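Bug report (template v2)

What were you trying to do?
Predict the complex of my protein with threonylcarbamoyladenylate.

What happened?
Run completed; filing so the output is reviewed.

Input:
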Amino acid sequence: MKTVVLPTHNPALFNEAVGRAAELLKAGESVALPTETVYGLAANALDSRAVAQVFEVKGRPSHNPVIVHVASVKMALRCVSGWPASADQLAAAFWPGPLTLVLPRSREIPDIVTAGGSTVGVRWPSHPFIQEVIRACGFPLAVPSANPASAVSPTNAGHVLKSLGGKIPLIVDGGQAQVGIESTVLDLCSQPPRVLRPGMIDAAVWSTVVEMEGRAGNMRAGGGKPRDMEDAPLRSPGQFVKHYAPKARLVIWEWRDETDLQSQVSNANFPKAGTNIIAHTKIPTGEGYGRVSVLPHDPAAYARAIYAELHRCDDTGAQLIVVEALPAEARWHGIADRLRRAGAVDLSHR
Ligand code: TXA
Ligand code: MG
C-alpha cells in the first residue's frame, strides 16, 4: 500500500488534509493523525471492523483496550453510561488536553474498543487537527499511539512513516507533538480515582480538582490524601511492564562524574562506540561514545524531546542507551514511568 503524507502548515493544506482524513475514516480506513501527546492511529470508534484493522496494523493484543477520542463533552457523554461530578470537574479543568478518563462504557461502544471490559477510556485532545477531523466525521475516534505494539510512540510524522509506512493509506503531518508522552489515564470507576498511567498532568495537579469535590462533601471521609494520588500507576489491561521500548538495551543510571560513568559503561560490557548517553545535568564530554544528547532539565521540555531521542538512538544502531536518572518530583513521574518501561527486560517477550 502506498502511504501518503499530507502537510498542514497553511490553512488550505490543513483543510485539504482534514477532508482527506475524514473521507478515509468514514470509509472505515485507519489514518495516522497528530495529537498533542503523541501521534495516533485513528479509526471510527463505533465501527468494530475499522478498529480491528488498527489492532492488526499495530500487532496489538486484543486484551488491550483503546482510548476513544472526542471533540466535546457532549460527544464524551455518548460514549459513557455514567458521568460522576469528578468527571465534570476534571473535564472542565483539563479538556481539551492530555488526560484520559476511564468511565463505565455506553452500549454504543463496541467490545473491541474496551477489550470486552465494562469501562471505556475517553479523551478530548487539544491538537486542532484531530479536533477538526472528529468534527468533520461526527463520530468519536479510537486512537492508540501510531506505533507497532510495545515500541516507542511517535512524536512526529517521520517516526510514523518509519514504522507504519506501507501499512496505512495516510499520515497527516501536524508538526512535533507538544506534550511528547502519552496522556495521564485516570480511572474514575474506583473511589478514590486511581492513576492507571501517569502522564504530564500529575497527581499534584489533578488531585486539587478532585479534592475540591471532596470538600463539597462527596468524596471520602478523613480528608487525607488517598494513596493513589502518589501517582504510582496501577495495572491497566494494557500496562505491560515492557512497553515504549527502543531496540537497544536501556538503563537508567546516576553518575558522580565522567570517570564514574565511564567505569559503569565498561562494567556493563557494551562497546563505548555503541553506547548513547542521554543526560540532563551531569553532561559527559562525549569522548568515544556513540552519541551524547543533552535534554533540558525541565519536565515539559524533557517530555517533548525524549521519544525523538530514543528513535534517534534506534536509527543510529545504538546497542546501549544510558539515561541519566530523573529527579524524584511528581512533575517527572510520567516520564520516569515511560523510561522504566523502556528499560524493562521482559523475558516473556523474548
Ligand atoms: O496520549 C494518548 O493517550 C495517546 C494519543 C494518541 O491520544 N494514545 C495512547 O493510546 O497512548 P494507547 O492505546 O497507546 O494507550 C492507551 C492506554 C493503554 O495502556 C490502555 O490499557 C489504557 O490506555 N486504557 C484504555 N482504555 C482503558 C480502559 N477502559 N480501562 C483501563 N485502561 C484503559
Ligand atoms: Mg501506545
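What did the reviewer find?
The pocket of threonylcarbamoyladenylate (ligand 1) is lined by residues 35, 37-38, 40, 64-67, 98, 100, 102, 114, 117, 119-121, 123, 125, 143-145, 182-183, 185, 196-197, 236-239 (CB under 6 Å). The longest helix spans residues 299-315.
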